[in-house]
């Protein structure tokens, strides 16, 4: 998953019930790094607060695991170097689990699949997945995972665009019947973009796999176990599903 760095902030203090400290945190506090430039996962809202799915997830895990956390807004460029050097304990920032990264760091169990998903107009009925789009036009950004994934759906009519935003605009104008993109981008268009508010819907589940996890130092098995236990508790309580409904659907 590419992330576009909109701005660089080192450490921000926010009134969200979490104490944001300086470079040194209490020994019992788990320090997370996140790059708050990618709504709806992590971003700075109009009030200057750090918000998003990952932020709520970290707070829910802290509550479930009965530990304190500190969240540091850190530029994506160098965020993994900071983890390796011990500047913080973990990275929770929409990090895709890949074999290449697993060679350098350890990951918690996946907490969300950010794979490719289908967007249609709000008033479209009878469509639950791409399998129901036979003979229909589907927009996609050229050269992306979604573009390649459409090879598995030869019955749809593929229409490629230089940017996924152009495809969504053509969907609104009736020039295509659906748009395929990764689920996080889809959520941003459907839920956060005021131009499309109430006009679009996400249907079905992701049909490719791109799992997010929380990264820790490879040798820090104690922390990894602690985070996995709290993540399991959040999942089993139904809170994870609540966050998905709040931020991504």
Characterize the structure shown.
It is a single chain. The chain is built from 8 helices and 14 strands. By secondary structure, the chain is of the alpha/beta class. It has 2 domains: 29-113 and 211-247, D-Maltodextrin-Binding Protein, domain 2 (3-Layer(aba) Sandwich), CATH 3.40.190.10; 116-203, Periplasmic binding protein-like II (D-Maltodextrin-Binding Protein, domain 2). The longest helix has 16 residues, at 221-236.
How is the secondary structure organized here?
Elements: E1 29-34, E2 37-38, E3 42-44, E4 50-51, H1 53-65, E5 68-73, H2 79-84, E6 90-96, H3 99-102, E7 105-107, E8 112-113, E9 116-121, E10 137-141, H4 145-149, E11 157-161, H5 164-172, E12 178-182, H6 183-192, E13 200-203, E14 211-217, H7 221-236, H8 239-247
Parallel strand pairs: 1-5, 1-6, 10-11, 10-12
Antiparallel strand pairs: 2-3, 3-4, 6-14, 7-14, 8-14, 9-12, 9-13
